[in-house]
Amino acid sequence: MLVALLIASLIATSCPEAPVVLVKRVEVGLTACTECPTGTVIVKVTVNPDGSVKDATLVQASLAPTLNGATLRSARLSLYWPRTVNCEPVEGTYLFREDWLPVVRWKSH
């Protein structure tokens, strides 16, 4: 019994629980616009044990639907490392945030 507890303890300390990790962010831009909208969009991404995206839903939307759609596409196309528990990959979630800032265009004189 003591040996089993010791082994379980070693396994638990050598494989701690780890959250979903964003491995590669895929940027999805907007088409050219004269006055591009700004805002912050947050998407909750559910990641399968194999790292694929199971679902992506808006948690915080922008008033501009184009930003919401672009952020959802970016979140779905990005690559993730799954959550792990006891060294095993399991389903988990990741909050994907996109801050759409104003585009600064410099004019030369």
Number of strands: 7
Strand content: 35-45%
Give the assembly state of these chains.
Answer: single chain
Helix content: 10-25%
Overall geometry: elongated
Q: From N to C, what is the helix and strand string?
A: HEEEHEEEE
Give unreliable regions as ranges. Answer: none
* Nearest-integer average pLDDT: 85
Radius of gyration: 20 Å
End-to-end span in angstroms?
A: 81 Å
Protein structure class: alpha+beta
Give the biggest beta sheet.
3 strands, antiparallel
Q: If strands are numbered along the chain, what order do they take across the biggest sheet?
A: 3-2-7
Please count the helical segments.
Answer: 2
Describe this structure in words.
Helices cover 24% and strands 36% of the residues. It has 2 helices and 7 strands, in the order αβββαββββ. The chain has a 3-stranded antiparallel sheet, covered by helices on one side. The chain has a two-stranded antiparallel sheet with strand order 1-4. A hairpin with a 5-residue loop joins β2 (39-47) and β3. It is elongated, with a radius of gyration of 20 Å.
Brief summary of the model shown:
The protein has 109 residues and is α+β, with helices and mostly antiparallel strands. The protein is 24% helix and 36% strand.
What order do the helices and strands come in, and which of them pair?
Layout: H1 2-14, E1 21-24, E2 39-47, E3 53-60, H2 65-77, E4 79-81, E5 83-85, E6 88-90, E7 92-100
